[in-house]
Amino acid sequence: MEPGLDDIRAARDLISRHLPPTPMWSYPLLDRAAGAAVLVKHENAQPVGAFKVRGGLTLLAGMTGAERKAGTVTWSTGNHAQSLAYASHVFDAGCTVFMPAGTPEGKAAAVEGWGARAIRRGDSLEAAEQHAREHAERTGARLISPGDTPELLAGVGTVYLEIVEARPDVDVIVVPVGSGTGAAAACLVAGRPVIGVQSSASRAAHDSWRAGELVTRPNRTTVAGLATGRGFELPQRIMRDRLADFLLVDDDRITEARRLLATAAHTLAEGAGAAALAGVLSRPDLFHGKRVAVVCTGGNADADELATLRRG
Ligand SMILES: *Cc1c(COP(=O)(O)O)cnc(C)c1O
Questions:
Q1: Where is each Tryptophan synthase beta chain-like PALP domain found (predicted)?
Q2: Nearest CA-CA partner of 81 in 106, 99, 58, 66
Q3: Probe ligand 1: pick from 99, 187, 222, 226, max atoms within 8 Å of CB?
Q4: What is the number of the ligand 1 atom nearest to the C-alpha of 228?
Q5: Is 312 a domain residue?
Q6: Atom of ligand 1 at shortest range from CA of 185
Q7: I need a surface site. Which of 27, 40, 78, 237 has the fewest CB within 10 A?
Q8: What is the distance in A from the centroid of ligand 1 to the CA of 181?
């Protein structure tokens, strides 16, 4: 199934019972730095600190009682895990998350805080995915792909309904990309150009989009939300003819954008949450004088990320 605008509208009806719309603000010092009228959509203000909670709630709301009883299993470095754990808590369902062994303790604790099981195993996200698949086969829990699950994509699309309804004058929307669900959903809703941003150290989604086929790439970014080693089929199919452009930025530029959000917009962003702004700052030729919505997708900076705010 490929979700469409109707599914995203339906998702909004579902999640509006659980989440108020997030604020979107502008900041003069950001505008000055960017040479554009920047609107920051504050998904860092969500209950789990990231936009993905919209997808998790949409998925769980649509599951039957029997499915909820069997529970879900997934793999994640953090926010997808917290989203699913939170939604499973709200809908009283079981949830198991496999995280790479090196995932910071705090990210596992956040998942366990919502009553889900976090298992840190495997030396990469890909290895964690394999453990999740085996767990699903063994237990009958539903395997939830962070990228290829239509309900998640429909749910996260509600961000973009809020943006275009609040500000019909927005010229362009800039979205950080990991698996691509957010950017794909934005393309379905936006009615204006959507530009994706990924880290140059993890460019699988970018390269898949450019190539028109799914590719794997080294996954070396320190920016958790943008970290993927492969393209995902569903979001890539949607983005293929609809995404206006796809930018790559270095992790260092993302750190600079995090500092700017902290000082100019009193906003604590994690790396992925600052990546859209980093994309705008990196390409004045594309954005100068435009009204640009940047999605601050999350604020779950870990201790290492927080420490880098001081340097530079
Ligand atoms: C997951 C995530 C992204 C990337 O979203 P996709 O839908 O996987 O492309 C961006 N920012 C944050 C904070 C995230 O958690």
A1: 15-298
A2: 99
A3: 226
A4: 8
A5: no
A6: 7
A7: 237
A8: 8
Q: Is the CB of 180 inside a 6 Å radius of any atom of ligand 1?
A: yes
| Residue-range definition of the domain harbouring residue 181 | 5-50+151-307
Task: For tokens 């900076």, name the residue.
Answer: 301
Q: Ligand 1 center to residue 93 CA distance, Å?
A: 23
Q: Which atom of ligand 1 is nearest to the CA of 50?
A: 13
Which pTM does this prediction carry? 0.96
Residues 222 and 293 in one domain: yes
**Are residues 284 and 168 located together in one domain of the fold?**
yes
Looking at the structure of the chain, the number of domains it has is 2
Choosing from 98, 113, 146, the residue where a domain stops is 146
Structure-token match 């934005």, residue found:
186
Determine if ligand 1 sits within 6 Å of the CB of residue 95. no
The DSSP annotation for 37-48 comes to EEEEEEGGGSTT
Centroid of chain to Cα 49? 11
225 lines ligand 1 (CB under 6 A): yes
Ligand 1 centroid to 177 CA: how many Å?
A: 6
Report the C-alpha gap between 110 and 31 in whole angstroms: 34
The answer to whether residue 135 sits within a structural domain is yes
Find the CATH number of the domain harbouring 26: 3.40.50.1100
Residue with the two structure tokens 């469409």: 4
Digits of tens for pLDDT over the chain (312 positions)?
Answer: 799 999 999 999 999 999 999 999 999 999 999 999 999 999 999 999 999 999 999 999 999 999 999 999 999 988 999 999 999 999 999 999 999 998 888 899 999 999 999 999 999 889 999 999 999 999 999 999 999 999 999 999 999 999 999 999 999 999 999 999 999 999 999 999 999 999 999 999 999 999 999 999 999 999 989 999 999 999 999 999 999 999 999 999 999 999 999 999 999 999 999 999 999 999 999 999 999 999 999 999 988 889 999 866
- In this structure, the residue with its CA closest to atom 4 of ligand 1 is 178
Residue 244 sits in the same domain as residue 96: no
30 and 172 both lie in a single domain = yes
Residue 127 and residue 224 in one domain: no
The angle at the Cα of 275, spanning 274 to 280, to the nearest 5 degrees, equals 100
